[in-house]
Known about the structure:
Elements: E1 3-8, E2 14-18, H1 21-25, E3 42-45
Antiparallel strand pairs: 1-2, 1-3
Amino acid sequence: MPVYKYFCKDCKDKFEIEATIKEKEECCNPKFVCPKCKSKNVKQKFSLAAFFTKGKGCDCQGKCS
């Protein structure tokens, strides 16, 4: 299940919510409130994801460009 990062605009708390994509798309889902102050004034934060590939990688020893 995906984990979404959020920031509360009222109390400035940062938190994560574990939810299905369907739950995230539902309007006014009670799951998406600040756990600290119960505000609905929250904004999703996006972070960079790390991607890994299978295989042994580049064997060019710095010769490719």
